[in-house]
Amino acid sequence: MTETTSLPIGRRRFIQAMMLVAGSGALAGLLPENGYAEGTRNTDTVRLGWGRGGLPLIARQRGEFEKRLADQDIKVEWVGPFPNHAPSLQAVVGGSADFGFWGSTTPALAAIIAGSPLVFTQFNVYSPRTTAIIVRKDSGINNVKELVGKKVAVNRSGLGEFLLVAALEKHGVDRNTVELVYLNPPDASPAFGQGRVDAWSMWTPAVDIAREQYDAKNIFFEGTDLDFLIDYSSLVTLRSFATDNSALVHAVIAAYRQEGEWINNNVLEAETIAQREGQYSDAVRDHLASYRRVNYFYEADDPAFLADFQKAADWLAERAILPQRVKVADHVVRV
């Protein structure tokens, strides 16, 4: 890594973070000394999962990502869209995709604990964080403590669940006094709008759309109310695929880093691409653009990052969001 960056997320320290600088000179630092030639590659096609937001969506819609890989005789096939990370991981394990879609590390760890031979090849952290717990303005709920006796929609072992658990813990609310309703985002949104759940813990852009669509408000916002980062975006594949195609994996990572740098420097254009896919209002798009989120990338074996990731995994296991402890360093590869 070429520089050290601290992220503005409370007291957690992120050491050796790097925003990739566009251009071949920057990419040279990401490659083995002799380029891709020393790596393995047993396919000329890579199948990439994508969802309705984030890096893969922008990469898929712009087309520059595919051109970069085409220059290395690699064909891209997009698999999706996936509503969240769990079905993306299932596609990888089931053999219909080679990579997930830069989703949450928590369901990936849950799948690994369950026996899936998945590995992390790269990590991404965006700042500021925008996941939130929302309630309708007419709900009578004004803070986290007032969730006692209420139903809250979350995605199991994902961002939604961990954020709710952290919020309840911070405000001294017994987790057993709140009913967690496990719903994937496409089902959680109408349930929230129809009042079948009282609150929803969700990430961007769905939470931003719901705030406008259902006249909702935040009662807990990750970027300002959470004192630590416990979940990260990750690029996941099978261990066998990473071993058999290390050069291809490296090429995919490098192309995604370039895409992340483009997003950092073209915020409104990136949000407009996401808006076309999500079909939401200009007001939501402009609100998302106002965050001016920045992507930071970490190598899979970065010691400082892995130390933080291990603390996060332990925190999740201690609270039974993950079923048991897991040594994260055993499930990363650097190509």
UniProtKB/TrEMBL annotation:
Xref: SUPFAM superfamilies: Periplasmic binding protein-like II
Entry-linked CDD domains: PBP2_NrtA_SsuA_CpmA_like
A Pfam family matched in the record: NMT1
Top-rank lineage group of the source organism: Bacteria
Domain Solute-binding protein family 3/N-terminal: 45-266
Family: Belongs to the bacterial solute-binding protein SsuA/TauA family.
Protein name: Aliphatic sulfonate ABC transporter substrate-binding protein
UniProt organism field: Phyllobacterium phragmitis
